[in-house]
Write the structure tokens for this entry.
Amino acid sequence: MSDTPPVDDATPAPDATPRELPRVVTSRWGLDDSHTLERYEATGGYQALRSVLDKAPQAVVDEVKAASLLGRGGAGFPAGVKWGFCPPGVWPRYLVVNGDESEPGTYKDRILMERDPHQLIEGVLIACYAVGCAQAFLYVRGEMALAQERIAAALNEAYAAGYVGKNILGSDFSVDVVLHWGAGAYIVGEETALIESLEGNRGMPRLKPPYFPAAQGLYLKPTIVNNVETLSNLPWILTNGADAFSALGAESSRGTRLFAVSGHVAEPGVFEVEFGTTTYRDLIYEHAGGIRDGNELKCFIPGGASAPWFFEEHLDLPLETGAVGKAGSMMGSGAIVVMDHTTDAVKACWKVVKFFAHESCGKCTPCREGTDWLEKILERILHGHGRPEDLDLLLDVCDNISPGLAWPPRQTTICPLGPSAVSPVNSAIVRFRDEFEAYIARAEPPAVATVGGPVPVDIRVGASS
Amino acid sequence: MSDTPPQTETVTFTLNGKAVEAEKGELVIKAAERAGVYIPHFCYHPRMKPVGMCRMCIVDIDSGRGPALQPSCMIEVAPDMVVNTESEGTKKAQDGVLEFLLLNHPLDCPVCDKGGECPLQDQTIAYGPGESRFVEEKRHHAKPIAISQNVYLDRERCILCDRCTRFAKEVAGDPLIHFTERGSSTEIATFPDDPFSSYFSGNTVQICPVGALTARPYRFKARPWDLVENESTCTSCSVGCRVSVQTSRDRVLRYQGVDVDPVNWSWLCDKGRFDFEAVHGDERLGAPLLRRDGALADASWNEALGAAAGHLRTALETGGRGSIAVIGGARLTNESAYAWAKLAKGVLGTDHVDAQLGDGLPAAAVLGLPRATVDDVCAPGGTVLLVAPDLKEELPVLYLRLRHAVVSDGARVVELSPTATGITPHAAVSLRHRPGETAAVVRALLAGGEAPAGVDPDAVAAARDLLAGDDLTVVLGRSSLAESAAGPVAAAAAVLEARPGARFLSALRRANVHGALDLGLAPGVLPGRVALDDGRDWFTSHWGSVPAAAGLDTAGILAAAADGRIETLVLLGADPLADFPDADLARRGLEGARSVISVDLYRNASNEHADVVLAAAGYAEVDGTTTNLEGRVSRVSQRVNPPGTARADWIIAAELAFRLGEDLGVESVADLWAEIEQVAPAFAGLTADRLASAAATDGFVVPLPAEAAPEAEPDEAAEGDGDAGEPGVTQPTAEAVSEPADAPATEIVAGADEDAAADDVEDAAADEPGPDRPALLSFAAGAPGEAPAATDAYSLRLVVNRRLYDRGTLVAHSPSLADLAPPAVVHLTPKDHDRIGVGVAGVTEVRIRSARGDVIVPAVADKGLAPGTAALAFRQPGADAATLLDAAAPVTDVRIESVEGGGS
């Protein structure tokens, strides 16, 4: 297996476009033992780390900068640039891996951690080498038991094999990786809340400034917080070079990107597609096999539960931050939730609001009280106790959380969580007001399918598996 | 006083269309309030860091990128910023936030203590929606729950503003309450089995913007609109926190902290806040007592005063002036202290007068050392040397200020203490030394040389670096009652020798002890910080006579009494049997005095020995002034009537003088103050007008600075023309105040004193030009005392410190505090703890044996103790440390052995 190429092309390419796309982060997903060190090494694993150890750290930073690797957590900040924000000469520095993937519908990082933990660990080591960290903290969401297990096992293997720990591969580069298991809080996906949680405090966002993590992060030391997918890109970039990476994708969105498609599609899954050129139509109809049972599309959430909903007319937008933003929503975490025409818009709206009310940290009044109130009103409507004035009330409560109901949202809150609960209410009432009115009139609502708890999604690799 | 604010840059911004100036870095909410625009808020508190949580203060702020709703408590003013607090958007947001806050608020205002003084009520009326659109079920919790003995939490009313939790963490440093749960289920909670047992817990009740936190001592006692309040000064310790005394129907119901910059910043300790209960204690004396047939029984004032005067007259006749002694006076107002000083020194002619009970520092040191204020000690970036007791236990709000200075303002503390203290975690260096070595360690720190063995040399080196600068402030007090006052005094002398510019803040703890000393209730001094010899001519001219020679301090008085040399002992609010750190001497002294007169609020151990007990009016029952540890004079106010026929201390003094055929020449507190201002040099210029001015809420540090003193005296200058400009005025510190030779008080006293004058006064009073106003006392280091002998190999050196809650009068007579006093327990180093065998085979108690006596107490191991020491707190339930102490010994060494369980 010594001649195994870095990209495993044994399985079909993840999209059906004529051009053969390299599989940057998903190359091992089709393999049953992809999480083991043996398989990882057999498929080119830890070669990038070996090559990096011969370079100067700055050369690694430059390579990543040249690749224009944008952060994959949602904000899309260039990773190489972020690394440069650590104040010079201040030690120690920490790398914190944000594996607290919590946005409803988003599960790309979980699959990355479950299927290819060594790729992430290698990425962590490369980043540590580039930034100058001797300690990395891997924060994995509490609900992801398998990811946690796989990473723990992989870390043990990597320590035993000398990839992690003291004097890695005989060099004078040493890194310890601490695995931390979250306690289940959506807001901890926000990097400063994650740092608070890691320190043992309540997971609440820090007030900024002065606590930009790169300057004062974990234990008030310079801290780089990177997303799992971001770091998982590093082995490929360092192996294949920045040029190969930046040759992929659109002008402002280089490389490939993972999108998680769930909901009422025929074949839900996580798909690695070229960044910035693929459209929602491609993703939903080509990759995910179209709407289930030949139903019609009703709406879809384009970028995580906090994004305003998109409809039929938005299908041809490219998966690119600027274009999606202009259309009044966001790409966010790369989670696409599809709802077909059988969906009860009121129930769907309630479900999303309930999530945010549950996850509100409780720090500021409009979010703590407002999201809870929204949930209660929607629940009342669903239970047949709606009043005609409730729709205006819902919108006015939304307005008190996010004045003007504009996009991007203005907010009376500290962080965007409160306004996140506003998007579904506003989207649903504007587009599907008749459904709300039907509930309120105690009329028979349109034929519905239950939008219940999470539907187990069979993880598909690429177009089929 | 410090009228000129520090130089700050100003910034101009636009507020509701008008240009407004603000200090650079000032928060919008604060700058707006100064400009007269109130922005409603709940979580913002000017004495805590903003958190921006309640969102009530969001207003339209345009920092150049268009107006946006932003929390004005988080944003600093910037040039060209445009703030609009009246925009439609602002109003809508405020309305919305209030509606949100009220969703789950129970609206049980009619039965809520806060109703009537509730920010949530007030702001709802001013800014909120007329009615709620919320029709769902509100949140429910069990209510209320006790989070400490005195603080109750109603989670339904709570609006989660983070004020109490922030206070606990940021200000008090006792993070014992915290949020739990999340989102709309968030609530305040204590940790399991760990109550909110902070010395400062009551402040959370005061700052709670709703009725979520209530104080047990006040619950359901009154409605705010029934309360009448007077601003006053707390005298539970000597910090001098400003308080509002709130009463209803002649009962004190509550103290609330008042925010003054130089002192307490609105905070109070729980002892000061809740000991108002002692004002109305069940056992308060409402009438004088007279010993009849061996027992104390109620008497009329006429009988009692007559009997007391009789004792004094007998003493003068049989034993002469030196046979009368007065112990105590720290409870008194300045005016009463002056009246008693005048009675004792001017009328009775004795100098055996001491307001301290052997637990303080010599008056010469307290009055004579160069003074620092609390602000000086807590100056940002300053360096402070603590040679003092545990401030958290004895002067709690000073601890808060110093803690803030360290945590937020970069002050650095070098602490010298035999035990770990509340400030130890914040000290840059905390040195452990044994009693008796205080001065030696200070010399080692400031003048080089060896530190005594056992003191950590690395810490000494680190402390030396910190103390290298010239600008040094020292907090000086007794870290152990088992070390004589000579230790800290020698330490002060060593400081002054090495750093002549050093300034000192006294850490004496008793209420108005500084005022009592200032007004002459100490041996060898006269009112106004004047040494007896320096002030002899001046006071003879005003009083007619003064004692011939310096008298005895409390230890000396008790020893003399024990020897039968004291005819009449006056206990002026003093209980030496409980408070004097030598129980045996106190007992012998009280038994040895031929007659004992007690002036007190309560019966106590000592006045059980009295022949006459005169019922005094106490705090909140008298008007006057008090002086804090800085020398800051501020007013105390009467709000209630004393119980029964109890009288102000000064009236008792005047009555006694009258019955002795003298006249103190005063008929009111105002008379007394006028005389103090005229006669007592340190108070010159501090006129009644000044004390009644708006600036008086901060108090006035005496002596007034040179530029301030003359301001008050144009009238006097005009009247006293002929005397002004006398040559040969030598006093350096008495400011240019002209001679008040024509003061009416002077004439009366001089006229009334003919028969008493001859003994003591060589020189007849009041010749025409009048003597010069004497200079203020200044500290002169005495010869360094001998170092105490080394401890023998079997002994440990005893440290006797204090706890905030003890068996003292105020705590013991406040039901809400009384059982907070922790039982006596001896602290041993872990090594000694193990060596003595505590914890082995059922042993939990040890016997502590000194040359004087022994006590049996439980023992605990304490890593914060200096090697070779054992620490026991004074006056705690269960054991009396005073029985171990010898007032004449410089240190106390004890032997400690284990006691088998069951008391064999």
